[in-house]
Specification:
The chain has a domain of about 170 residues: Uridine Diphospho-n-acetylenolpyruvylglucosamine Reductase, domain 2 (2-Layer Sandwich), CATH 3.30.43. Helix 11 packs antiparallel against helix 15 and helix 16 packs across helix 21. The chain is of the alpha+beta class. Helix content is about 55%, strand content about 10%. The protein binds protoporphyrin IX containing FE. Protoporphyrin IX containing FE binds next to helix 15 and helix 21. The site of protoporphyrin IX containing FE has 23 residues, from helix 15 and helix 21. Keywords: Heme, Iron, Membrane, Metal-binding, Monooxygenase, Oxidoreductase, Transmembrane, Transmembrane helix. One of its GO terms (cellular component) is membrane. Its cofactor is heme.
């Protein structure tokens, strides 16, 4: 009986899936789209039913994942973006692959990437994140388009201004002090110890964003972000199942996701209500991101003559969830790759430490001092170039438009492969795969031949809102670590960069730390 019901359910799901594919195919008509692009000289793979190149992409990635990589090699684009890498090699920098019935055009020419991301005439949109996923991880400003996006971005921007970030500095220094104390305690009386720094740095950036976002409501903030982190894992698990309509089934996974979402919303509503009461009673604080967001929201409403706040409670909740999702993992992998690179290149570790000690001595870092950190900044940019946390950006045409001499019909996905561009010798020179922070000595725009070609934080109006936040946090954490420890690669470290949601070290980041 139970098996019969299960088979019936599988048949229904199979039927739904086939209907969905047929509808998608009929609306997009992949052969027509492919013909239109090929007729204009664009080449690439042919459309394969039903998944396009997605299965091939997964197969290539899985094969690359098992290959050992030399410790000193930074030539990662073939490993991290194998489908793009092979297609560009065979068909050129502007070529075509498929996601199901949708053509994906690879643009690995920085000039075209800047043109797309600048989106001067509003021809491009971000790829749509499924609504259920948005609800879980919080789409916030990154999930909106047009006027709604512009309004949200205007309200959020002030919270990330440099002078506001000054107030968040104690969040960064406190969290890093706690991390350093933990590492020192774990060493006991010994001088050196192996530590997998990646989970440690995830805790650091998770805690830093909790403190910076919620300040006085830290304990609830930590609880929220802990659940949010579980949501991200559950969401990844759910998307990997590839079952249409899965979210509506009363499975254990779905029940857990819904219970988590309810708990987060309850906690957030409580904090927001408390802040609103404090603001009404004239006790407004402007120390944390949530305060700044709420004040900016009220100011925007006053300026536009509206009696109601421009962003609703749900909007604010969405933004806060997004800050965690967008800011925690990216900054932790940046710091992780930086410690690994400085372990592989001790001469740069020495130069960075000399600079930190010259600027701060053994004292705690401050905002003015971080502006003087030239070597540290060059190191961070070079790490972001070689190991960009976000390896690819995507846009979609939604009306016919011309780009680089080719007319794109609506519904074409554009792949902007950050890793491949960052490892292109035509753009960066023959030494492209070497760790050479000195290429950033005169800033980002002078680092490449074709300027600028650095897209780790995106480009144009939708450039990362949190880049100052992330760089400040990374500078403070790195300075304090350099003040207290010297470090090198542990023999148990395996060099295996792998793209999950961000570019991660597949087997951890084991380094030998030594107290100074
Ligand atoms: C090293 C750290 C980080 C990296 C590499 C990074 C990278 C990026 C990139 C590439 C984009 C553009 C995506 C696109 O155009 O499709 C982006 C957008 C965004 N980032 Fe970051 N990010 C980092 C840290 C942060 C932090 C700390 C926050 C917030 C606390 C944050 C919040 C956002 C938001 C809200 C957007 C969406 C902006 C919009 O759509 O207007 N990011 N980030």
């Amino acid at each position: 009986m139970a098996i019969g019901a299960l088979l019936e359910l599988l048949c229904v799901l199979g039927g739904l899936w086939l209907t969905w594919r047929a509808l998608e195919w009929a609306c997009l008509n992949p052969r027509r789209l492919g013909r239109a692009l090929r007729a204009q000289g664009l080449h690439g793979t042919a459309y394969r039913f039903p998944s396009g190149d997605l299965a091939e992409e997964a197969r290539l990635l899985a094969a690359e994942r098992t290959k050992p990589m030399p410790l000193s090699s930074h030539a990662i684009s073939g490993r991290v973006q194998p489908l793009v890498y092979n297609t560009v090699k065979e068909h050129g920098k502007i070529s075509m692959v498929w996601a199901g019935p949708t053509p994906r055009v690879i643009l690995s020419d920085p000039k075209l990437v800047r043109e797309v991301l600048s989106n001067k005439f509003g021809h491009f949109r971000k790829a749509k994140i499924p609504a259920n996923l948005l609800k879980m991880i919080g789409g916030g400003v990154s999930g909106h388009e047009g006027e709604k996006w512009a309004l949200h971005r205007k309200i959020i921007n002030p919270a990330f201004h440099l002078e506001k970030l000054k107030k968040m500095l104690p969040a960064f220094t406190t969290c890093t002090s706690e991390l350093i104390k933990r590492w020192e305690d774990s060493m006991g009386s010994g001088k050196a110890r192996e530590i997998d720094v990646w989970p440690e740095l995830q805790d650091l950036t998770g805690d830093a964003i909790s403190r910076a976002a919620f300040g006085s409501s830290l304990s609830e903030g930590r609880r929220i972000f802990r659940i949010q982190s579980e949501q991200v894992q559950l969401a990844t698990h759910m998307t990997n199942l590839y079952i249409p309509g899965y979210t509506y089934l009363p499975t254990k996974l779905n029940r857990r996701i819904k219970a988590n979402a309810r708990e987060i919303e309850g906690l957030l509503k409580g904090i927001i209500a408390k802040k609103e009461r404090a603001m009404k009673n004239g006790h407004a604080d402007d120390g944390d991101l949530l305060d700044l967001l709420m004040q900016s929201n009220i100011k925007e409403s006053k300026d536009s003559g509206s009696s109601k706040p421009m962003m609703t409670m749900d909007d604010i909740i969405g933004e806060l969830k997004l800050f965690y999702f967008a800011g925690m993992e990216t900054t932790s992998v940046l710091l992780t790759w930086t410690l690994l690179m400085l372990s592989m290149h001790p001469e740069w570790q020495d130069r960075a430490r000399e600079e930190v000690l010259r600027v701060f001595g053994k004292k705690q870092s401050d905002l003015d001092g971080t502006h003087q950190l030239k070597v540290v900044t060059m190191v961070l940019y070079e790490v972001l170039r070689l190991y960009p946390p976000i390896t690819v950006l995507e846009r979609q045409t939604y009306k016919e438009m011309e780009l680089g001499g080719i007319k794109y019909p609506p519904g074409v996905k554009l792949l902007l492969p950050v890793v491949t561009i960052h490892h292109d010798p035509d753009i960066w020179g023959k030494d492209v795969d070497e760790f050479k922070p000195e290429r950033f000595a005169e800033g980002i725009s002078k680092a490449s031949k074709e300027a600028p070609a650095f897209f780790s934080f995106g480009w144009g109006p939708r450039i990362c809102i949190g880049q100052n936040f992330a760089l400040l946090e990374a500078k403070i954490a790195l300075s304090m670590i350099l003040q207290h420890f010297s470090f090198g690669l542990s023999p148990s470290y395996t060099h295996a960069p792998f793209p999950v949601s961000t570019l991660q070290p597949d087997h951890g980041a084991q380094i030998m730390l030594e107290k100074i």
